[in-house]
Amino acid sequence: MLAYIIRRLLLMIPTLFGIMVATFVIVQFAPGGPVEQVIARLQGTAQEATARFSGGGGDFQNQAFDATSLDATGVTSRYRGAQGLDPEFILELERQFGFDKPPVERFLLMMGNFLRFDFGESYFRGQDVIDLVIDKMPVSISLGLWTTLIVYLISIPLGIRKAIRDGSRFDVWTSGTIVVGYAIPGFLFAVLLIVLFAGGRYFSWFPLRGLTSDGWAFMPWWQQILDYFWHLALPVAAMVVSGFATLTLLTKNSFLDEIGKMYVMTARAKGLSERRVLYGHVFRNAMLIVVAGFPAAFLGILFTGSLLIEVIFSLDGLGLLGFEAAINRDYPIMFGTLYFFSLLGLVMGLIGDVMYTIIDPRIDFEARRV
Question: Which residues make beta-bridge pairs with 63?
């Protein structure tokens, strides 16, 4: 097993490098980079515009720009809307963002910093990326943790029940519910919950935004807990509805596959009770793929499933941070979080494989080639 883990760790290096290269190349061709973002903020001004910009290692404060200074063929022509701005200012912007260097050199410098977990400073927030991630992490962890736990608590018993009563009326009706839940996107269900229960049109039972109420720090501890879950109710419900269908069907199919195997028929022939057969023999084998997939499922819900939910409910987490970084072309946040979460995803995949061997020692990854 140790040799397999070492091979997987070594394989992470080219995998992570490939992800970063592909993303970096795509971003280079995307319009509206950081320089264009600053230029866009200067549009609509009169003869003079005063802009404050902080990021990339420098500050621009109260600097006036002459709108009569045009350079149609020079540096300003490289950026949409730059006509009318001082070319020296555009060059200074490029230096501050690091765009005065060739793309290959910028990429190698970025990866060198990332190897030391130095993700730089946000262009438009003026904070270290790692500090922003740590600050937003509790919100996303709250959503991901509670959603994953509730999904597992619902899906596993429901999937087992459906397998036991396969083809029954219960199985048919619950399958219809699962199909509906799978078909409705989580963000659409979130909008529906807001309309129904968050003052959208009918009831105002739940808050519309935030993870806690104003004055939460001054509440008694029991009221803080209630307020916390009160704010989480609708976002978690929206994520659970769209997330439990796949796991339920996976659990059912795993049980049906195990129930049809020879060892189950042998256990029944020995006179074991149906409960002993199901939960003493079938359960462990059927739950192998479900339990071992928990790290990857949690990571998926945490960093991908909560994106639109955080935006809709104005929850200041990693999803909202990534959304705003993409809109503002805040490259340090975009690339830094991609690197960190890609690395975390690869590690979680390895942990999932290790869990396979812990749950079922018969699995031998040493005999496999990575």
Answer: 51
